[in-house]
Specification:
By secondary structure, this protein is α+β, with helices and mostly antiparallel strands. It is 18% helix and 40% strand. The protein has helices at 9-12, 27-38, 121-132; strands at residues 16-23, 43-44, 49-51, 58-60, 62-67, 72-78, 80-89, 92-101, 111-116, 137-143. Strands 2-5-6-9-1-10 form a six-stranded antiparallel beta sheet, with helices on one face. A two-stranded antiparallel ribbon has the order 3-4. The longest helix has 12 residues, at 27-38. The protein is globular and about 60 Å long.
């Protein structure tokens, strides 16, 4: 009889699909257009995803939707946190902006759509195709979560 010892990774590996979105839209506008084009109902989370630390110091907006039809949980997550700093320079004021990324290895991605559950490839392809049809979306594509060093930031 062979005994398998369970490790922490056996319990923490959440099954989800990750889609990257490039757009200039604000979070609320993108959520509205995704709702309209995907027939879902993203709503703003009461709390943003907030980190204080050496690398990921920022606040990232989150929108959630629970699909009763498909039994999937959807999240729209900002990848960029912008913090403006105002400094006095002689008689002038200078405003600088600091950008922090939730997933630093995906700096070109503005938002992630995370769909929890075991999805078939055709559903994911169809979802990406619908996202790409949104005029203000530059592009959208599937991201292999296993290649991300910072994927733990997506577990909440």
């Amino acid at each position: 009889m062979q005994i398998h010892a369970l490790g922490l990774e056996d319990f923490c590996e959440e099954e989800y699909t990750l889609i990257g979105i490039h757009t200039v839209l604000e979070d609320y506008r993108l959520a509205y257009l995704l709702n309209k084009n995907l027939q879902i109902r993203f709503s703003k989370s009461q709390k943003d995803l907030e980190f204080e630390g050496d690398k990921n110091n920022g606040s990232f907006s989150i929108y959630n939707f629970q699909s009763k039809k498909y039994a999937f949980d959807w999240s729209l997550i900002a990848n960029i946190s912008k913090i403006e700093h105002q400094a006095a320079l002689n008689e002038f004021f200078s405003i600088t902006e600091t950008r922090t990324y939730l997933i630093p290895e995906e700096k070109k991605v503005d938002f992630f759509v995370k769909i929890s559950g075991d999805l078939d490839a055709e559903f994911v392809k169809d979802t990406i195709k619908k996202i790409k049809k949104i005029e203000q979306v530059i592009t959208s594509y599937s991201i292999n979560k296993n290649t991300l060093k910072s994927k733990d930031f997506l577990i909440f």
